[in-house]
C-alpha cells in the first residue's frame, strides 16, 4: 500500500468510526451470532496474493461488526465500562508515527518521558500523594497493560523484598492475602506465581469490605501456623458490588506488620478519585497514607481506550530490584547513569506500546473539569437506576448499598413470599437469564455471599437518563414476568391433580 | 469532541502519518535530545479546562516527535525491527469500532473468533504443523502482548503439569533451562516466578547454539543433584547473534525426558518461517515434531505493529488447566458449554485489546507472497552488508556467520596486530561509541562469549540497497578512524621519550 492508498483508506476508516459512534445507539448492544459464525464465514488460510484494502475494510463491516458486542453503547450496563473515546482514538493514531517497543529511555526518549509526565498528571488528577510522583525520583507511575499485570508486579516486588529480609523462609510458606471480593487477578497471580492465596471472608453488614480487626486476627492466626503473608491486595471498588475495603483500618493494622505490603486495586473506581468530593469515601487519604502501590485502569471508566492501566508505587526501587535484568545489548550510557527511567524494569515484559500518547490526548482534551464531568454524570445516572429500584420494593431490592455508578439488585424476597433462599436464588438466576436473552440491553450477574444478583453499572459516555429509564422498565417488566413464570409451575407443583389435569386437556 | 471535530482531527492525523512515513528517511534516525527534555517542556499538571484537539496535535508534532527514535527509518539497524506498516495502522483503526476487553467469547464474539482464525492463518503462513491449529480444538494459537508473556505462559503451564505429575517435588527444586544466548525473558521469568534459571553455555564453534548431547549431560548432572528441570526455552534466532538452537537434537534428547517441556522462542526469526526455503535452516520441521509451544512476534519483523505476539501450543489444556479462573460474573452459557474459546484462560491477564484486527488486515493485504517478499528483501539487504564486511578483512570481521538479516561484526584483530583480546574489546567498545554518536544511523552492540561486537540487522520496510551501502561506508570509515584514535596514544605510550618531546614542542 502506498501513501496515497493509505490516505484514502485512513479517511475511510475515520468516516466509518464516525458512522459507528454516531449510530451505535440505534443498534442492538449485543450481537445475535452463534459460536463459530465468523470461523465459518472466513477462508481457512490467508490469501496467496495481497488483497485490496477496501475489500478487507468492507469485510470488516460486513463480517466482523455483526459479531461485536458494543461496550460503548449507551445501554451497555455490564461488567465495567470500556472507554472508547474519540480523543483516545486520535491519540493512539498519532502514536503510530512513533511505533517503538519503549523498553528504555534511549529507544525512544519522548515515549518514556511522556509516560513519566502523564503518570504524574494522572496522579494529580486523582489526588494521589506527592510520594507517588515520578518527579520525586523515589516513587513513580508506570503504564501497565492491565490491572492483572499491575498486581503481579506489586506482588513480585513484595515477595522479593520479603525474601531479601527473610532469606531463610521457604517459598511455600509465603502467602498472598486477598478477600473473597478481590478481583480474580489475585487468584490468578497465585496460580502464576505458584503461591497460596488466602481470601478473607467479608460480611454483608460491612458492605463486603475488609475490616482492620479481621485482618489482625488472620495475620496472628496464620503466623502462628507458620505462614508468611507478605502482601495484601485491598480493593477500592470490587467487581461484584463496588465494595471499598477499609484501607484506613487495614493500613493502621499493617503498621504493626511492616513486612506486609499493601497494594490497592482501584482498577474501576479509581477514575472517581478525580472528583474531590468522592475521595474520602474512596479512601484516597488512606491510600496516600498507607498503600505501597495503587492501580487504576484508565481503560475502564477513565476515558482512555484499551490497553492502559496506571500503576503508582511509593518506592520504585522495590520494582527495579525485583525486575531489573539488563542484558548487554540494552546497555547504554543514559540508562547506566541513572538519569533516566527504563520502564522495562518496572514491568513484567521488555517491550511496550507507546500508550501515553492517548493518555496525554485524553487528559488535555477533557481537562480536569471534563474528566470530572464524565464521572459525575455516570454516577448521577447510576443513582437514577438505584432510585427506581427503591421505588419498587414489592418487586425488586438493592442487595447492597449502591457504590457510585454500580448497583446490585435482585427480585426481592417480598415478591415471592414463602420461598426459600435457594429458590429465590434460582428465581434470580432465571430472571438474569431472561434479561440476558435480550439484545437491546446488557447486564451481568454475580453472587454475593451466596446471593444471586444482577449488576447494573453506568459509564458509557453517551448514556443519557432516558436510557436508564428504558433499562429500568425492561428490568422491572422482566422481573414481573420472571416471577410469574416462576410461580406458575410452583402452584401446580403444590397441587398435583391440577398438573395432571392440565396435561390431559 | 463531537463527531465532526473527530472527523477533522482524524483526517489531520492520517495526513500527518502520511507526511511522516513519506519523509522519515530524510530525518535523523536518532533524536538529539537530553534526558528531561520533554519533562521540562511540559506543564507539571494536566489543564483544568479542556484544550483544543488541534493544539494537542500540534504539540505532538512540535514536542513529542523531536524526541522519537525512528524504528521504521530505513537506516535503523539496531535491536530488531519494529513493524509500523500502514496496513497495520488501518487495521488497528478499525479495531477502535470494537473496543472491548475480549476476555471471553461472549464479551465480543467477533474478536475471539477473528483471533482464532488469524492465528490459524499465521500458523499456515509459517508452515507450522496442523497440531498447532485452533481448528483441531486440541492445540491452538493465541495473541499475547509480547514474547515475555508467551514464555511466561508456557513456563507456568509446564510447571503446573510437572507439579501435577510430581506433587511431592518441592518448588525450590524446580529449574528452568535456557542458554546463555536466550533472550532476557528467560531470566526475567525466573525472577518473576521465583524459580532458578540455569543457562547452558554454548560454543563459538556451534555458532552459539545448543546441542543435544550437552543438554543430556546437563539434565543427568542436575537430576543427580536433586534438581527438577521442567522446561527448556530453545531459541530460533537469538538476540545477540541470531543463533538457532539445534531443535532437532534437543527434541530427540527430550524424548528420553518427556517431563521436560520445550518452548521455542522465535520472537524475531519466526517471521522468516513464511518462506519455505528457510524452514529447514530455521528448524521448523523440528519445531513441528518436538516443540510444545512456539512464539513469534508479529510486531518485530512480522509486519504487524505493537503489541502483537503469537503463541501456539500443542495442547491448549496445558494452558487452561494452569490458568483458568472463572469468577461468577464471567460465567455464561457459551463459555460453560465449551463450544467457544475464552482467551483469558490462555493468558496471564483477563482483559486484552482487539489485536487480531490488525493481524487480519496485514495478512490479507500483503498476502502470503507479499509477506514473503518483505522477508526475502530484508535478508538480501542483510547479505549486502555482510558481503561488504567480508570484502574488508584488513579492517572488519564477521564474528559469527550471518543469520538471515542479522550480521555481527567488529574491528578485526588483523587491523590491530599485537593487541590483546581485552584491548581489542576496548577498541570495539570505543568503535561502537563512535558509531553511537551519530544520528543518521542506528546500530546496537552485544557481547558474544566475552567478545565485544556490533549488531547490524535489517527489516525496516523502506530500507533499500543504497541505505546499506551508506551504512557500510559509515561503519567502515568509523572503524578506520577508531583504529587510528586507538593506536595513537598507544604508540606514544610505547615510546616515553617521544611523548615528552611532543609535550615540549
Explain the overall architecture.
2 copies of one chain form a homodimer. Chain A is globular, with a radius of gyration of 25 Å. The first copy, chain A, has a 7-stranded mixed beta sheet, with helices on both faces. Chain A has a 4-stranded antiparallel beta sheet with strand order 8-9-11-10. In chain A, α6 crosses α12 (316-323) and α9 (247-254) packs parallel to α11 (284-290). With 505 residues, chain A is α/β, with parallel strands linked by helices. The longest helix of chain A has 35 residues, at 356-390. The N and C termini of chain A lie far apart (71 Å). The first copy, chain A, has helices spanning 3-23, 37-41, 53-64, 86-95, 109-125, 147-165, 185-193, 212-224, 247-254, 276-279, 284-290, 316-323, 333-337, 356-390, 421-436, 465-493, 496-504, and strands spanning 140-144, 174-179, 197-200, 228-235, 261-265, 293-297, 309-313, 396-398, 406-411, 444-448, 451-457. Chain A contains 17 helices and 11 strands. Chain A folds into 2 domains: 101-354, Type I PLP-dependent aspartate aminotransferase-like (Major domain) (Aspartate Aminotransferase, domain 2); 365-493, Aspartate Aminotransferase, domain 1. Helices cover 45% and strands 12% of the residues of chain A. At the A-B interface, α1, α2, α3, α4 and α5 of A face α1, α2, α3, α4 and α5 of B. Chains A, B: Keywords: Decarboxylase, Lyase, Pyridoxal phosphate, Transferase.
Amino acid at each position: 500500500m502506498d501513501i496515497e492508498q493509505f490516505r484514502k483508506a485512513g479517511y475511510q476508516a475515520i468516516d466509518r468510526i464516525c458512522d459507528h459512534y454516531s449510530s451505535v445507539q440505534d443498534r442492538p448492544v449485543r450481537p445475535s451470532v452463534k459460536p463459530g459464525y465468523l470461523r465459518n464465514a472466513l477462508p481457512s488460510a490467508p490469501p496467496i496474493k495481497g488483497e485490496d484494502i477496501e475489500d478487507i475494510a468492507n469485510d470488516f463491516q460486513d463480517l466482523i461488526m455483526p459479531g461485536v458486542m458494543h461496550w460503548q453503547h449507551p445501554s451497555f450496563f455490564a461488567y465495567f465500562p470500556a472507554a472508547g473515546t474519540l480523543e483516545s482514538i486520535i491519540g493512539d493514531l498519532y502514536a503510530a508515527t512513533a511505533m517503538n517497543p519503549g523498553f528504555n529511555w534511549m529507544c525512544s526518549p519522548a515515549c518514556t518521558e511522556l509516560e513519566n509526565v502523564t503518570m504524574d498528571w494522572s496522579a494529580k488528577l486523582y489526588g494521589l500523594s506527592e510520594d507517588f510522583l515520578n518527579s520525586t525520583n523515589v516513587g513513580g507511575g508506570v503504564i501497565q497493560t492491565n490491572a492483572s499485570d499491575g498486581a503481579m508486579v506489586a506482588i513480585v516486588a513484595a515477595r522479593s523484598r520479603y525474601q531479601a529480609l527473610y532469606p531463610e523462609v521457604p517459598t511455600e510458606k509465603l502467602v498472598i492475602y486477598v478477600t473473597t471480593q478481590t478481583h480474580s487477578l489475585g487468584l490468578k497471580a497465585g496460580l502464576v506465581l505458584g503461591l497460596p492465596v488466602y481470601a478473607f471472608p467479608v460480611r454483608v453488614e460491612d458492605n463486603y469490605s475488609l475490616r482492620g480487626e479481621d485482618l489482625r486476627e488472620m495475620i496472628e492466626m496464620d503466623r502462628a501456623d507458620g505462614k508468611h503473608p507478605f502482601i495484601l491486595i485491598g480493593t477500592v471498588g470490587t467487581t461484584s458490588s463496588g465494595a471499598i475495603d477499609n484501607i484506613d483500618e487495614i493500613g493502621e493494622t499493617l503498621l504493626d506488620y511492616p513486612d506486609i505490603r499493601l497494594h490497592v486495586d482501584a482498577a474501576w473506581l479509581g477514575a472517581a478519585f478525580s472528583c474531590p468530593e468522592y475521595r474520602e469515601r474512596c479512601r484516597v487519604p488512606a491510600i496516600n497514607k498507607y498503600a505501597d502501590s495503587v492501580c487504576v485502569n484508565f481503560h475502564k471508566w477513565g476515558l482512555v481506550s484499551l490497553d492502559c492501566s496506571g500503576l503508582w508505587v511509593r518506592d520504585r526501587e522495590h520494582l527495579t530490584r525485583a525486575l531489573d535484568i539488563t542484558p548487554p545489548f540494552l546497555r547504554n550510557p543514559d540508562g547506566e547513569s541513572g538519569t533516566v527511567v527504563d520502564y522495562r524494569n518496572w514491568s513484567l515484559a521488555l517491550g511496550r506500546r507507546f500508550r501515553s500518547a492517548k493518555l496525554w490526548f485524553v487528559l488535555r482534551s477533557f481537562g480536569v473539569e471534563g474528566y470530572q464531568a464524565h464521572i459525575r454524570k455516570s454516577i448521577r445516572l447510576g443513582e437514577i437506576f438505584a432510585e427506581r429500584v427503591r421505588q419498587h420494593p414489592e418487586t425488586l431490592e438493592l442487595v447492597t448499598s449502591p457504590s457510585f455508578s454500580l448497583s446490585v439488585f435482585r427480585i426481592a424476597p417480598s415478591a415471592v413470599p414463602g420461598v426459600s433462599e435457594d429458590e429465590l436464588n434460582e428465581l434470580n438466576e432465571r430472571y438474569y437469564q431472561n434479561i440476558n436473552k435480550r439484545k437491546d440491553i446488557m447486564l451481568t450477574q454475580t453472587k454475593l455471599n451466596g446471593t444471586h444478583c444482577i449488576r447494573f453499572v453506568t459509564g458509557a459516555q453517551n448514556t443519557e437518563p432516558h436510557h436508564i429509564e428504558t433499562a429500568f422498565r425492561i428490568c422491572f417488566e422482566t422481573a414481573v414476568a420472571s416471577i410469574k413464570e416462576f410461580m406458575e409451575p410452583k402452584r401446580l407443583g403444590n397441587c398435583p391433580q391440577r398438573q395432571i389435569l392440565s396435561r390431559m386437556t
